[in-house]
Amino acid sequence: MEQNWNNEQDETEIEYVYELDDEDDASDDGTSLEWEIDDSAAGERLDKFVTDAVDDEAVSRTQIQDWIKAGAVLVNGQETKTKHRLEIGDVVTVNVPEPQPTEIVAEPIPLEVVYEDSDVIVINKPRGLVVHPAPGHSSGTVVNALLYHCKDLSGINGSIRPGIVHRIDKDTSGLLMAAKNDTAHASLSAQLKAHTVTRKYIALVHGKVPHERGTIDAPIGRDERDRKMFTVTEKNSRHAVTHFNVIERLGDDYTLLELQLETGRTHQIRVHMKYIGHPLAGDPMYGRSKTVDLKGQALHAAILGFEHPRTGEFLQFEAPIPDDMAHVLHSLRQR
Questions:
Q1: Around 181, how many Cα atoms within 13 Å sit in the side-chain half-sphere?
Q2: Is there a single domain that holds both residue 268 and residue 323?
Q3: Mean of the pLDDT values across residues 249-264?
Q4: CATH of the domain at 233
Q5: Exposed, middle or buried by CB within 10 Å (0-12, 13-18, 19+), for 94?
Q6: Which of 47, 90, 119, 169 is catalytic?
Q7: pLDDT of residue 102
Q8: d(Cα 320, Cα 318) in Å, to the nearest integer?
Q9: Could you confirm whether 169 is annotated as catalytic?
Q10: What pLDDT does 32 receive?
Q11: What is the mean pLDDT of residues 292-317?
């Protein structure tokens, strides 16, 4: 394992590369998940470990226990009990069951619709709005709002996430697309998998980024010290690539960046920027102590582009940064 990067300050471009052996790169197939237990997880109950490790905020510990009882979770290829204690070297495999029907109620939550036709809808999500329901929290989300607004959404992702093709974090604002039928959903998902969807973000990060542009190529997986967080790691990780360009340097303390996702891992931008020493301002999980007046990370999904699933036309949309983030930038420029 080798970490490779050129950090000379007089260059205008930098590439941060965390080289990962092919066999260490976890499968991107969302229907089957696998982990090998090391000393950090040895002794944990099976149900707790899987709950923390599964990359899906919509899955509760009770659901994981049901999966174990149904034989969908195996330890070394064998069914076992929810309270089974894991040992070093154990291999835990989860065959994710199809979601069970869950009634999600349409709610008249205001949406800023950027584009809409019979196949797809693009919205500008405000900071603080969760994308889809989770067990025990079935209201007040983008999905509830879409069901009220659209009436028709694709069913590929199950009843708890109808129409949802991709996600952005609760406290990230910006553009989000949803599919209105299964054909559109399949097309948009295929484009995401092929990395042909344009996704550009605006972010305010700590520190003075010395290079004008760069690429961060570093795999992301669960943080063994805190499984609610993610980190750059070689273990049970997925390939992740983020490109960035400097928009503006605000003294020595902050830099405004445009970032483009090549892959779309959970918390990818937040993890990658922390990895290179420039965490997002306001980030409660990966950032420094609160330094800007924002309820969450200074991250906005500003540009979204994709090929229309029916016509084949390439569509691209832009959303201006939200008022709270604009206010922070104004204050920093006035210092």
A1: 9
A2: yes
A3: 94
A4: 3.30.2350.10
A5: buried
A6: 169
A7: 56
A8: 7
A9: yes
A10: 74
A11: 96
